[in-house]
Amino acid sequence: MPRNYRTPACHRAKLAQAIGLGLAVAVIGAAQGEERRGTRFWNLTGETITHLSMAPTGTADWGPDQCRNDPDGSVDFDERLRITNVATGRYDVRLTGKTGQSCIVTGVEVKAGAVFAIDKEALAHCHGR
């Protein structure tokens, strides 16, 4: 039998390898796409946010005002804001609304490259309100 003769089992194995490689590339591409989009805050508070800063939960290491990442310097209700220089973890989020009222929402889970939201209910229980 010639050396280059391939059995049906050999074809199936090659096909399985090609499919596996294709799936791996698709998963990696999707993950890289999320990273390129970056971490985002979704404002579901019902209010316009004019200042937003974050600190690892339980610390006072407040980062910069993330609202500076928005062209108009604020985050309207149902708008998403690009968050920079924040790694995956739990954060306390300090918010100031258009009215000037501030509060801190504690223990917000943030995943790098994903969207996290704060809603009206979270504001009802936040500190400093």
Helix content: 25-40%
Strand order of the largest sheet: 3-1-6
Largest sheet: 3 strands, mixed
What structural class results from the helix and strand content?
alpha+beta
Q: What is the total tally of β strands?
A: 6
Structural commentary:
- The N and C termini lie far apart (83 Å).
- The chain has helices at residues 8-37, 120-124; strands spanning 39-44, 49-56, 80-83, 89-97, 102-110, 115-119.
- The longest helix has 30 residues, at 8-37.
- A hairpin with a 4-residue loop joins strand 4 (89-97) and strand 5.
- It is an alpha+beta fold.
- It folds into two domains: 1-37; 38-124, Immunoglobulin-like, CATH 2.60.40.
- Residues 25-35 have low confidence and may be disordered.
Give the helix/strand layout.
Layout: H1 8-37, E1 39-44, E2 49-56, E3 80-83, E4 89-97, E5 102-110, E6 115-119, H2 120-124
Parallel strand pairs: 1-6
Antiparallel strand pairs: 1-3, 2-4, 4-5
Keywords for this structure?
alpha+beta; 129 residues; single chain; three-stranded antiparallel beta sheet; Immunoglobulin-like; three-stranded mixed beta sheet
What's the gist of this structure?
With 129 residues, the protein is α+β, with helices and mostly antiparallel strands. The chain has helices at residues 8-37, 120-124; strands at residues 39-44, 49-56, 80-83, 89-97, 102-110, 115-119.
